[in-house]
Amino acid sequence: MNKLKKETHSFQSEVKQLLHLMIHSLYSNKEIFLRELISNASDAIDKLRFLGISKPELYENESNTKIQISVNKSQGTLIINDNGIGMTRQDVINNLGTIAKSGTKSFLKSLENQKNNVKNELIGEFGVGFYSSFIVSEKVLVRTRFAGNNNDQGTLWESFGKGEYNITNIVKKTKGTEITLFLKKEENEFLETWRIQSIINKYSDHITVPIEIQMYDEKKKIYFWEQTNKAKALWTKQKSSISEVEYQEFYKHLTNDQNNPIIWNHSHVEGVHEYISLLYVPEKASWDIWNKDSKHGLKLYVKRVYIMDNSQAFLPNYLRFIKGIIDSNNLPLNVSREILQDNSITQNLKSALIKKSLKMLEKLSKNNNKYQIFWNQFGLVLKEGPAEDSKNLNLIANLLRFTSFKNNTAEQTMSLKEYVSNMHKEQEKIYYITSDSYTSAKNSPHLELFNKKNIDVLLLSDRIDEWMMNYLVEFEGKKFQSISKEDISLNKLTKEKIKNEKISTDISNFLKRAKKVLGNKIKLVRTTYRLTETPCVVLSDANEMSTQMAKLFSAAGQTVPELKYIFEINPQHPLIKKICKINDDKKFDEWINLLLDQALFAEKGNLENPHKFIATINKLLIEE
Ligand code: ADP
Ligand code: MG
């Protein structure tokens, strides 16, 4: 037998911080500790069931897996026992001394300045798991042994939840884990079996493992075990027999999110591919949704046997906010992440689940209020869809929401259907503008003509928008058109033309001189019908990279070829009329450069040489 080696270890600093937070932030919902411990026990039994498929000896002649809960009133202890996979000594050190999840540090940092109620919510979202035992306990003991190991390879872990824990080798006859909570005096309510029962009914009824509570028969003076949950996988039940609350509790169990889901879809599918799926859309984005290596994906079961968490093979990235389970009858039980990757069954399931998810969102979109909550949380994620999933472009496009010039609010509430239904009779294209911010889009000089003609324009100012618009080519047969790009069909619609005879000799001289001054800085210079209030504007050529796209590329550290714009001037503008009259070439030169810089400034939001721009303005002001 191993020497009884007792060691004292210090908790990882994040754990200390977490424990401190939990114990001191007046946790309002203390009872969730039991849900967490039962969930861990059930996970451990799932793991045993999974590994037991290929190694039946791991069951150690005890094939009835279960979770048992008992109390000892005189000692003030609550004991949660499972005969699942258990832990080795090293597992214990790794799992019950650190927080392995990535991003914990940033999560804890985000908690620092929050109010208590927000903290509670965030902690719940993060899923504090095992450490929540210290919300109600003074001291916690864990006795565990990994299935298949010898009896003397058990481990005892004990801690007061302060800075450190002790770890000792022990003999443990049964595989699995037994957790003993020495409850704080004021938490004695958790010693009452009716209380325990009600918590289990509330949170853990759907757990597929039997949960038994130890009861005492007063008459016979004996203890006996009574199963307290139904232990049937929720998703295998008929939809009509599942209550809304049951669906919600199952979601919370699955995700550690304390908020209710905003919508869900449960389907039993028969045929070539037989499967059950239960998909949820959360009400709130998880804190790590923008974390590159955050874990998302569905929980995978094969014929009711738990296989793995966070299987990313069934949903694309742009639907990463969807949570849920998929239970397939066709996949092999020994499936691994690698096998899943390029498996035709997976591919089929994936396309079916994408459709289901998008249909579920479409259903949600019938409820404007709820859909707006969803869009505000996940719109940016969904906007990755057009680039990632061209097959479902139409479904996705219908789910997108925008703001527009006429909408008059930064909030994105307009669907493309709505835009199209408000289009002018002769309008063939969907007009949009991309910019750095809502305000700069809304005030862009490009909008002047559209405003005058009462044609609405979508205002796009999320970073991803420019990228998305590369993939969103048309909607219901209508092409998308950026209004900051050359568009020869525009004058047909607006019936605005620059009639040649109307261009005075002054203006045509002006254009010639301007081209001479600006030379290669621009593609061409011409008069415009687009402007009403602004003297000049720059347009991108139809086939050239747009300004926003160029910005995205250079922000990503790529070299972008210098953009050459079409420079348009508004012959009606008093400033242009004034400059037309300047004969002095040097002065004209300064004015033209100033005009171009103005237009570039409006288009790009910055200038290569702002000092020169300011100096020229000042000089011209003084000369006035
Ligand atoms: P999570 O369950 O989210 O991983 P927890 O803090 O609840 O986080 O648990 C930490 C880890 O401790 C688990 O992932 C698991 O490896 C281990 N663990 C906890 N309880 C048990 C148990 N009853 N049996 C086996 N392993 C357990
Ligand atoms: Mg857990």
Structural overview:
The protein has 624 residues and is α+β, with helices and mostly antiparallel strands. It folds into four domains: 7-227, Histidine kinase-like ATPase, C-terminal domain (Heat Shock Protein 90), CATH 3.30.565; 234-366, Ribosomal Protein S5, domain 2, CATH 3.30.230.80; 401-483, Rossmann fold, CATH 3.40.50; 495-623, Up-down Bundle (Four Helix Bundle (Hemerythrin (Met), subunit A)), CATH 1.20.120.790. The protein has a nine-stranded mixed sheet. Strands 10-11-14-12-13 form a five-stranded mixed sheet, sandwiched between helices. A hairpin with a 4-residue loop joins strand 5 (154-159) and strand 6 (164-170). The longest helix is centred in the N-terminal third of the chain and has 23 residues, at 32-54. The radius of gyration is 33 Å and the shape is elongated. Bound molecules: adenosine-5'-diphosphate and magnesium ion. This is Chaperone protein HtpG. It comes from Buchnera aphidicola. Molecular chaperone. Has ATPase activity. Keywords: ATP-binding, Chaperone, Cytoplasm, Nucleotide-binding, Stress response.
